[in-house]
Amino acid sequence: IPAPEIDKPFRLNIDRSFTVKGFGTVVTGTVLCGSVRQDDEVQQFPKKVGIRIRGLQTHGQIINQVFAGQRAALNLAGIAKESIQRGDQLAEHESLLTSYMLNASLTIVKDSSMVLKNRTRIRLHIGSNEVFGRIVLLEGKTLSPGKTMLVQFRLESLISTRHGDRFIIRSF
User: Fold this and answer.
1) How confident is the model at residue 157 (pLDDT cuts 50, 70, 90)?
2) Using alpha carbons only, how large is the chain's radius of gyration in Å?
């Protein structure tokens, strides 16, 4: 298993958002890389809204800093639960790219029974987010099981990514 990437900019995929009476909005997720401290300001992606971290917990313990590889709960200041949802990310300012299009190298697993055609509607799973869109094949008209091709995902919602992010596609 690769070592946690503590030296890279902070990033967390949000998997839950809820309100705790007396504290306000809390989000949970796994810290993918970097670290963050209480009272640091991060950016919510894809909306690119600045948010201050009021408090941190990991496994029920109140702490001052979380690191890559840890599950964490972050108490956020000045944002409603409805404004931050599963699939959003918290990261350092301007550290992610946000777009409706994503270029990637895609390999279809060998035991798949489906041949992927150009402009097929798909579900893209990236981080804790699920986004609908279409796939544009950049090197041919079809992609067969066991083969790899450069593709472009044209999505119905904004997503924020970093080079090297892994993803899964499923049929619509």
Assistant:
1) very high
2) 18
